[in-house]
Amino acid sequence: MRFDLTDKEWAVIEPLLPPTRQGGERADDRRVLSGIFFALRTGIPWDDLPERYGPHTTVYNRFNRWAKQGIWQAIFERLQARFPASVEMIDSTSIKAHRASAGAEKGGS
To answer: pTM for this one?
Structure first.
C-alpha cells in the first residue's frame, strides 16, 4: 500500500528497533510501524486506521510507549547519523511571505 514500509526501508529500520520483550509475542513490528506512519502521514484518528494494520489500540499504544521511552528520538538520531543527506529541515524564517499572509489588508498601502 501507499504508506507501507518497503523492503528497503524495513531493512534499515528493523535493526534499530528495541528487542522483543520477554514473556510473549509482540505484534508484527512492520505492520504496526506502517500503521503508525499511515496515521501520521494522513492525519486520521487512530481509531480510523484500516484493519490491515491490526488493532488501532496496538498501533497507538506502541507509538505512545515508544515516544515516552525515547525510542523514536533514538531511531531518528541513528538514521540521521547513517543517512545525513536524507534529513532536511525548512526554516520558515528564511521564506518570504506576502504581507497578506500575516493578516494585512489586500491592496492597502
So the answer is: 0.71
Q: What is the pLDDT of residue 108?
A: 59
Residue 31 contacts residue 54 (beta carbons within 8 Å) = yes
Higher pLDDT, 78 or 45: 45
Spatial distance between the Cα atoms of 4 and 56, rounded to a whole number of angstroms: 16
DSSP-derived secondary structure for 23-84: TSPPP-HHHHHHHHHHHHHH---GGG--GGG--HHHHHHHHHHHHHTTHHHHHHHHHHHH-G
Cell numbers placing 22: 520477554
pLDDT for the residue 58: 94
Distance CA 44, CA 60 (A): 12
| Separation of alpha carbons 87 and 80, rounded Å | 6
Please give the Cα distance from 13 to 74 (Å, whole number).
Answer: 11
Length of the chain (residues):
109
Buried/exposed code over 63-86 (b: 16+ C-beta within 10 A; e: otherwise): beebeeeebeeebeeeeeeeeeee
